[in-house]
Each structure stands twice: as structure tokens, then as C-alpha cells.
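User: Predict the complex with zinc ion.
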Amino acid sequence: MILKIRTEGDPVLRMKAEPVKDIDDDMRKLAADMLETMYDAPGVGLAAPQVGEAVRLVVIDVGDGPEILFNPEIVSCSGEVVDIEGCLSIPGMQGTVKRAAQVVVTAYDRFGRRLRLMGSDLMAKALQHEIDHLDGVLYIDRAYDIEPVEEDQEDHDEQEES
Ligand code: ZN
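Assistant: Here is the predicted structure with zinc ion placed in the model:
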């Protein structure tokens, strides 16, 4: 089921999301719906607050298959990269953001198994962007500059939003 993506100004985007205590069928359904919503948008990542649920769940697919992460935490990061970012909750805009180049994240998968994940490049960017959403932080809080996405860029779908 495709869910409605909340946009900037919706208070849920500024809430600190609650940890998921039970990874049950309702949570797995939410994760599946979030993936469907993300692919439909299209985007490379989506956090539960973006669909109105203030819980610590993110989904990501940067082209290597879907990742469903419950209670994700960044346990280490290294390097630095400055790149352009967009967000499905702030349509039509993009900004330049400094992020860690590599991150290590721990989380639980949809069966409640603990996992550890290393991300670099777009995956590192998506992980940081989505985990920020769980703390009510939007990329515009970190961006050096924010500007409208140019028409031709939008047509070519070059921008990865999350
Ligand atoms: Zn976002």
C-alpha cells in the first residue's frame, strides 16, 4: 500500500521517533508499505516519520536491494564528503550537505536479528539522512545552501531523494 509522504511543516517530521519494541507483523507491514512508497516516489530511502509514524524504522535501496532497518544507530563514521541532497518531504529542492564518507550502523532486521552494516558513498549518505529523520532533523538544517531543483535535472531523474 502506498502511503502519503508528509512534507515539511508537518510536526511529525520534527519529532524524536520512539524505538521499536516489538518487530511484529504490523511493523513488517509498515516496512513493506514504506518500501512500496519509496519505490513509487521514487526515492532511495524513507524514514517512518515521513509517512506519519514516529518510530525508529528506515528503509533504503541505493540499487543494491532493499534494506529494512529497525532501531538503526550509527556506531562509527569516518571521512568527509560534501554532496547534493534532496528529500521526499521537501519536494523540488536540493541542498549541499557535508556528511561522513563512511558509516557503520547497527540495527535489527525484520526478523529481529541484530545486524551490522557498513556504508560508503550513496549508502553512507542515505543512512545518515534517514537516521537524522528519526531525530527530527532534516537535511535543510545542515545544508550550506538550498535551491530549487532545475527542470531538466528533474526530468532526467538524476537526483536521489530520501
Ligand atoms: Zn528525507
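The helical segments are 25-40, 121-134, 151-156.
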